[in-house]
Known about the structure:
This protein is mainly beta. It is built from two helices and 36 strands.
Amino acid sequence: MVDTAGFLASTLNIGNDDFLRGNYLFVNPGPGKIENYGVIHVTNGGSVVLISPNIENSGLIQSDGGHLVLAAGEKLTLTSMDAPQVRFEIQAPEDKVLNIGQLMANGGGSIDVFAGAIRSSGAISADSVEVDKSGRIHLVAQGDVTLEAASQTHANGPAGGSVLVQSQGGTTLVSGTVEAKGSDGVGGTVELLGRNVGLIDQAAVNASGKTGGGTVHIGGDQEGGGTTQRAEFVYIGQDAQVHADALDTGNGGTVIAYADDTARIYGHLSARGGAVSGNGGFVETSGKKGFELLNAPDTGASHGLGGMWLIDPDDLTVSTRMPISAIGVLRQPVPNRGRRSEYQRIDHRQLAVQLWRRRNAAGRRQHHLGGPFEPVA
């Protein structure tokens, strides 16, 4: 067991003079690996920094309100130990981080994992118990990021924190739990980004909050705008769930599922208003060239106005012949090469049920596609 105020370990080289001057430039002398099977614990907001081309954690790495940094690369600079940030000069696709244990920075801390590839089947937690301290998790890879079925990745607290899972050039694949829930306030922010983004099996993403829903971005921001990375393909399986609900009071949050090419959305998405008061939130389900959706999202409100559902493909067909047998099968996406995709359809039964429910809700509200629910005169 390691129990200290701060901990830095690296298989890369650093010059003595550089280290003494606080110039943390690390250079790889050859193959190296860090493996943790025990406990690394730092107190009072301290930092744990592990640097190597290959990092594996099977034990517990913990900082009380501080920072955890796992950086897999060949040559990089660490800005400081107090608030560590990493600047990579050389990072190879085979540089990887594997977590099958626990990474914990509870108390409003932060966890940063950078690598060529990231895989986790364990727990990554930056929960908070204080109102003014929200945790932050960044999992960023050049290649694939995989959060397996047993994985739990969460930055929960009185107000939800933030979780970023990003594959800059590969696939972000989630089959575990990702949360930024607010137990007393609003939900936080979850971003699942990559060239391809998939939620499979029983993946559960939750940014709900007691007094208002948070924000979930899957594949991009609203209508693909802003500087947020945009996915080419997005897949949300039939058993996957995505929530940005207001639980007691307040308005529902925002859920965006966006793809520049094709989005296949078979799971359950919701941004409900509070059970006591509040309006429904905003959900977008868009694939610009190809789009398929079987379950209408829930933007309802028990004691307020329903929310907005945006569908924004190039073309849209309301179909009575959806390929039901294909539900839940992760098919290899095929580029459309400018042609209209065969997957630009929505199940007419789901659309009809959604509109009927909204029209027959308390106070008889009518749904206008692309706009809010308004009372019927």
